[in-house]
Automatic annotation (TrEMBL):
Top-level division of the source organism's lineage: Bacteria
UniProt entry tagged with the keyword Hydrolase: yes
InterPro entries noted in UniProt: AB_hydrolase_1, AB_hydrolase_fold
Pfam families referenced in this protein's UniProt entry, alphabetically: Abhydrolase_1 (PF00561)
AB hydrolase-1 domain ranges (all copies): 11-109
Entry keyword set: Hydrolase
Keyword Phosphoprotein belongs to the record: no
Name this protein carries in UniProt: Alpha/beta fold hydrolase
Record GO terms (molecular function): hydrolase activity
């Protein structure tokens, strides 16, 4: 069973993080949704956070995990917010189990195929040799050689934990995520359609969803609304949380 952090009472709202992320990335926003009357389930996907590690890592497996999670917690009509990889997993879930969904929010990812583009990040993570017992500052120095952006490094560093006294490690399953990176870019199957209400949010400084992708989005999601979050890149919920929460709550409570 997927690990999650559950808070609040009311309508179930699943929050599904992106590649190399975890539920803790959504702690602040999750609390805000809980205050507005949602029972928030911030999930750690397989091979991420505190969830189980597995050699199997593709969207079919993730969809089954989400389905099993909903059955376990007896969640019937759910709202879902999915960012990046979590957004793509949410799209696949919508196609497989439309009857379980009420409202769907996709954050900065489209239904198209994406080429692997995390090579520098994965190279940096794989350059860390935990057998040498590095400290947090040592890990950051290694990552600096591969990842220029301070915010991205901090995002990655959140995955560090003390496996045992004096021994750091990453929470995510780095070997499988590296080996199966190609699966993360998978496109939705041609001809698949979800007819429920969907909000696509994109960062106005991000290039993950381009104007020319709108036609494909509406082919798969005929009722899709597409909006920009100002002054934000791919991590739009972290870079402009105020507008992100405003737009998502407006959609969820309409």
């Amino acid at each position: 069973m997927l690990h999650s952090r559950v808070e609040g009472e009311g309508k179930p709202l699943l929050i599904i993080h992106g590649f190399l992320g975890m539920s803790d990335n959504w702690k602040t926003l999750g609390g805000q949704y809980a205050e507005k009357g949602f029972q928030v389930h911030a999930i750690d996907m397989r091979n991420h956070g505190k969830s189980f590690h597995s050699e199997e890592f593709d969207y079919n497996a993730m969809v089954q995990d989400i389905y099993d999670y909903c059955l376990y917690y007896k969640l019937e009509k759910i709202d879902v917010i999915g960012h990046s990889m979590g957004g793509k997993a949410s799209m696949f879930f919508a196609m497989a189990h439309p009857e379980m969904l009420d409202r769907l929010i996709i954050a900065d990812i489209g239904p198209k195929y994406y080429r692997p583009h995390h090579q520098d990040i994965l190279a940096g993570l794989n350059a860390v040799d935990f057998s040498l017992k590095p400290g947090r500052s040592d890990v950051e120095e290694i990552l600096k050689k591969y990842v220029d952006d301070f915010g991205t490094r901090q995002f990655l560093m959140k995955n560090l934990y003390w496996k045992e006294p004096g021994q750091l490690d990453f929470r995510f399953n780095l070997k499988v995520l590296t080996d199966k990176i190609e699966n993360i870019g998978a496109a939705l199957p041609e001809g698949s359609v979800y007819d429920g209400p969907v909000l696509f949010l994109r960062g106005d400084r991000s290039n993950y969803i381009k104007d020319e992708d709108f036609e494909m989005i509406h082919t798969h999601f005929p009722k899709a609304i597409i909006k920009d979050i100002k002054n934000a890149g791919h991590w739009l919920h972290a870079e402009n949380p105020k507008d992100f929460v405003t737009e998502t709550l407006e959609f969820l409570t309409a």
